[in-house]
Structure formats: C-alpha cells, structure tokens
Amino acid sequence: MLPSVSKTTLWTMDDIVGLIDAMKRWWALRVGTLFSGRGRPEVPMAAPADDATGERFVAPSAGKAALYVVATRLVSIAPIMVGRANVGSLMDHAWIRVDVASGRYDVTVVGPHNNATRTVHLAAGSTYFIEVTFTNEIPPVYRLEEMSDDAGRVAILAGKRVHAAVQPTITPTTSLRSR
User: What is the second-level CATH architecture of the domain 13-178?
Assistant: First the structure.
C-alpha cells in the first residue's frame, strides 16, 4: 500500500522507484529471515565505535538536526525512509541516526501490511526521537510516535545502532526558512 497522497503531492518516477526499492529490501530481508534457519530477523549492525558515538548524543553540525528513529519492540524488519531516501532498516531494540538540514521531513516505516508516515519539523541544532511501534491487531499495523527526550535517550542506550544505508542528500519537504 502506498503512503497517502494529497492533491498537492507530485510523485516522480524516482520517488516511486525509491519506494519500490524499499519494499523489495523489506521482502528480501524478510525472506532471508524466514529461511536463514535462525528464526530471528537480522540487519547489518554498525561498528561498535559508531554505536558508541551515537550513544554520546553529540550535537549535530552547524545548520543540521539529529533525527533518531528507534525500534524498541518489533517482530520483523522495518525499512525506514526520511524524505524519499531509504536510510536503513530497523529490528527489535535497534536505532538509526540521521543528521539533516533544518526543515520539515516525512519519516516513513515500510511494513508488510501498511506504510506509516509522520511529518517532523526539525530546527537546526535540535535532536528529535521517533519510535517505530505496531498495534497488537492481526495483521499488525506499524505506527510512528514521537518520544520525549528522556525516553528516546533511554531507548538508544538500551539498543544497538544499525548500519545506515549510504545517505544521499536528504532534502526537506519544506524549509523552515521559507515560512
């Protein structure tokens, strides 16, 4: 299922290809999980040094904001998109950090039964935490929820950093300066 599209949203072929690539990645990871013989989902984890750097909550560089996406309770792989860029995939007790320019961004989790999107407004120098959750329905439905600073930091320290996909330039949906 594609994310909801308003009348003002124009999807280019590159946008659609990016979404299809994220869905293919989810299915490839899911199939690998089902047939790996281990029974537990796996995603590439970051090096211990990168994990430690993220857990220090270093302020983002000038003009940027830090966005942490956290999964504290997942049963399968969840690809994450910021804007229209696939930034990596999460699993249970894992997190990813993306440093982006200030602006408004759509954060999307690509699930097997739905895609959930949350729009976040990031100011330069800020740190923002979002949690990927799911409902206890059959089938489960993914959701993205804002976390407090304290809860986000606790979740990061309790989890492990995943290896981020090569981050292309992620552009905001709308710049805060243009308002």
Answer: Sandwich (2.60)
Rounded Cα distance between 177 and 179, Å, is: 6
Q: Which residues pair with 109 in a beta bridge?
A: 80, 116
Q: Give SS3 for 87.
A: strand
Residue 10 β-bridge partners: none
> Residue 82: beta bridge partners?
85, 107
Residue ranges of the domains in the chain? 13-178
3-state secondary structure string across 22-50: HHHHHHHHHHHHHHCCCCCCCCCECCHHH
Counting every residue written for the chain, the total comes to 179
Worst-scoring range by mean pLDDT, 21-25, 37-41, 90-94, 101-105? Answer: 37-41
List, for residues 95-130, the tens digit of each pLDDT value: 999 999 999 999 999 988 889 999 999 999 999 999
